[in-house]
């Protein structure tokens, strides 16, 4: 029986057990405790910001960000169609309405199409961007840094500033990616917009089992996020709650894992980078390749995208099956969010690229504990597949 090669799994060989034991021995296992503060500080230092707020998940982080920015039922939020649904669901938690936009060849938001939408389909009146079709105020945009790539923030930010759009960076998949050139040189994914969110879900580059972190240059926004994540309690002793809050704070146990994982993040990125370039060198035929990251960033190389040029549903299915037969997990890219039952009646724009990449991309194993031999094995199984080359 061949060894199972999963898509993306945790790598817990550092100080995880040591720190978890310390947390257990101290009996600080819930939402208070020194590891929560330490994890926030360490992560803020890593992405070079002043402060960060830990929460239960990336989804909770996006929810808190929308609440802190005052997004509500009177607003629309621009979102990508090609992403994980958790990037969009929080928009509906606050009763706002998502409007779907397309991606470009980086799989992140297409800024040209965003600009065309603003110019052709919106009015900018009294400092508010109004959707001409619905007459609603578009107050924010969620930009997702897909698979560790970063969207074109240099073009996106001035456009959003011009039209008073708040920018929420869903950097759940891009912890560690940063610009190496241009206006944002040295800036990390998640630290450029108004507020950024990371996820420490089990398949992410570092994990706390489940968890998230919010970063922002605005202390006020972070203060609001933290307040809302701890039941909006404004008087500890008297149990006075000034708003409806949530139980969204990260626990000390999870944070203990996070501190240990963060210590290893750069080494995980190095392994992922090596494996990424190995796959790229091996899988290079007329029909198959591994998608690029942007040239002006240091990506975190989180997910690898196998691109099938001559797409047929059977081709993709046959690769998935061949991999399965060798105990290798693969995963088609997400279904488009606007085609999921809760969103089929929402406004969309030209989504041709999202549709294109939805058809042509398959994600292949990328865990940071994947060995070079396993990379060769996976590539070999893909390449042996008849009718592909
Ligand atoms: C793009 C994107 N947004 C949001 C999330 C939600 O993060 P979490 O699973 O921590 O809630 C994820 C990952 O799960 C994601 O990939």
Work out the radius of gyration.
21 Å
What is the SS-derived class?
Answer: alpha/beta
As residue ranges, the low-confidence spans are none
Shape: globular
What oligomeric arrangement do these chains adopt? single chain
Q: What would you give as the CATH superfamily of the largest domain? A: Type I PLP-dependent aspartate aminotransferase-like (Major domain)
Looking across the biggest beta sheet, what order are the strands in? 1-10-9-7-6-2-3
Please provide the count of β strands: 17
The description of the largest β-sheet is: 7 strands, mixed
Distinct ligands = pyridoxal-5'-phosphate
- In percent terms, what proportion of residues is strand? 15-25%
User: Average pLDDT across residues?
Assistant: 96
Q: Give helix and strand order, one letter per element, not per position.
A: HHEHEHEHEEEHEEEEHEEHEEEHEHEH
Share of residues in helices: 25-40%
| CATH architecture grouping of the largest domain | 3-Layer(aba) Sandwich
The termini sit apart by 28 Å
CATH top level assignment of the largest domain = Alpha Beta
Count of individual domains: 2
- What is the CATH T-level topology of the largest domain? Aspartate Aminotransferase, domain 2
Number of continuous helical runs: 11
